[in-house]
Amino acid sequence: VSLGSTAGSMGRLEGKVIVLTAAAQGIGRASALAFAREGAKVIATDINESKLQDLEEYPGIQTRVLDVTKKKQIDQFANEVERVDVLFNVAGFVHHGTILDCEEKDWDFSMNLNVHSMYLMIKAFLPKMLAQKSGNITNMSSVASSIKGVENRCVYSATKAAVIGLTKSVAADFIQQGIRCNCVCPALSSFQNRQKTGRFATAEEVALLCVFLASDE
């Protein structure tokens, strides 16, 4: 994908500052590129420095190495960002197995990365949005959550159900102060045979939904 000289020409996100996690690959990377194409100033973060650096070549994107499980790193990063219009929490890990396959260390790791990281990021950036009296938070959840019970995704589903609950709570608490909070719930590959299109949405197509949520539309 090349942003070329047309970056920002459509301008749906013109002037917005967007912070996102897990931007080095997958939906996070596709979203970073889609945000930049629509004129946003994108601060793309990831723990993987080598993959993250590839985004630097695209206009409108700057990168920051960030471990979203480390509060000190997040707080320092937030202090360096003067304004944020959109926070997109993407970072997560898919553990495979039933509850019997999930050791305590697996449970703790998944909860820490998939849920606690969003708690830390929102706590760090929400005060900036409240001071601006506007802001927009999008969290990455999944169909495997409180939406549907999925085989061999016990702890993953538990974390993504928690993300839905977190999202609804933040939305309810701060909507009257100009803050929107939503989550995106893509499906897993095991659902493919149920899709009438015969395939899933690509990362780029999911990114377009995230562009809509990031916009004022």
UniProtKB/TrEMBL annotation:
E.C. number(s) listed in UniProt: 1.1.1.104, 1.1.1.184, 1.1.1.30, 1.1.1.300
Catalytically driven reaction(s): all-trans-retinol + NADP(+) = all-trans-retinal + NADPH + H(+); 3alpha-hydroxy-5beta-pregnan-20-one + NADP(+) = 5beta-pregnan-3,20-dione + NADPH + H(+); 5beta-dihydrotestosterone + NADPH + H(+) = 5beta-androstane-3alpha,17beta-diol + NADP(+); a secondary alcohol + NADP(+) = a ketone + NADPH + H(+)
Biological process terms in GO annotation: epithelial cell differentiation; fatty acid beta-oxidation; siderophore biosynthetic process
GO molecular function term, any single one: carbonyl reductase (NADPH) activity
Cross-referenced CDD domains: DHRS6_like_SDR_c (cd05368)
Primary enzyme class: oxidoreductase
UniProt keyword terms in alphabetical order: NAD, Oxidoreductase
UniProt cross-references to InterPro entries, sorted A to Z: NAD(P)-bd_dom_sf, Sc_DH/Rdtase_CS, SDR_DHRS6-like, SDR_fam
Keyword flag NAD: yes
Top-rank taxon: Eukaryota
Entry's Gene Ontology cellular component terms: cytosol
Pathway: Siderophore biosynthesis; Amino-acid metabolism
PROSITE patterns, per database record: ADH_SHORT (PS00061)
Role summary: NADPH-dependent oxidoreductase which catalyzes the reduction of a variety of compounds bearing carbonyl groups including ketosteroids, alpha-dicarbonyl compounds, aldehydes, aromatic ketones and quinones. Reduces all-trans-retinal and 9-cis retinal. Reduces 3-ketosteroids and benzil into 3alpha-hydroxysteroids and S-benzoin, respectively, in contrast to the stereoselectivity of primates DHRS4s which produce 3beta-hydroxysteroids and R-benzoin. In the reverse reaction, catalyzes the NADP-dependent oxidation of 3alpha-hydroxysteroids and alcohol, but with much lower efficiency.
Entry's family note: Belongs to the short-chain dehydrogenases/reductases (SDR) family.
The protein's name: Dehydrogenase/reductase SDR family member 4
Organism encoding this protein: Jaculus jaculus
